Amino acid sequence: MKPRYLFPEDYMADPSANVFNDRLYIYPSHDWDSGECFDDDGGHFQMKDYHVLSLDDVFEGDVTDHGKILDVADVPWAEKQMWDNDVVEKDGKYYLIFSAKDYNGVFHLGVAVADRPEGPFRAQADPIRGSYSIDPCVFKDDDGQIYCYFGGIWGGQLQWYKDNKALKCEHLPEGDELPLPSRVVRMTDDVMQFAEAPRPVVILGADGNPLKANDPHRFFEASWMHKRNGLYYFSYSTGDSHLLCYAVADNPYGPFTFKGVILDPVVGWTTHHSIVEYKGEWFLFYHDCVPSNDTTWLRSLKVQRLFYDEEGNIQKVVNE
User: Is 14 marked active-site?
Assistant: First the structure.
């Protein structure tokens, strides 16, 4: 079965899919043409609000747009560029973890809370203490602990940090250097702050050594975590090498062992995704560009089924 363009009525990207109350909810970023010039740091991505979509039949059902759930004007600390986000439920409340730039041009992660998955969400007055960069994924483990995976290079500013401290100048590893990793951190019980210092997400190759900066399968952005049959699947975008990859571990911190490529390149520069089980099937949500759209950075949501072999390996899917 071919992928479905999920919501061609509007430009949306970076879909975070979650199941709440037996219904599938997708929390995307919201693309629009702001008139800003294109650049490699994403200056043209001037997203200013979030919507949420929901449906109960992935390929045949109507997709409901519940409208705006949070606007940058309602976030006291944020000036612009509301990029990727994700939502997790805890004790009947819904916590939206999102990334945005403050008034100094620095990306942080923020929290907004709602009583329903459809929102609206009310943002906290300040960003998460010690947070930086972009692309949060919030993962609730079987024991109820909640972890946040985050980070993105270039426009995502990860190259400006080392050991959770800001650098005076950026550093982009090259060649045989170790690449910049995603970060993982356990959240406090109230899902408002980091409960610890963020840790690097190390990805090992088949030889047991960490992937190098010149490996096309190293991390770049778009962390996602899902769990299946006791295994933790960390998936991510490789950015400028245009792949969607995954690695596995037996715990949420890793290290993770690289396993393979999930998706062929999409139109445009890269993709951002989520993986979720719904009604006994697994689905891959991601963004691409509608073929008739010549502006390749205005993106649209896609979904297709995902399959695993008997050993738990994800079978690569074809983007059509």
Answer: yes
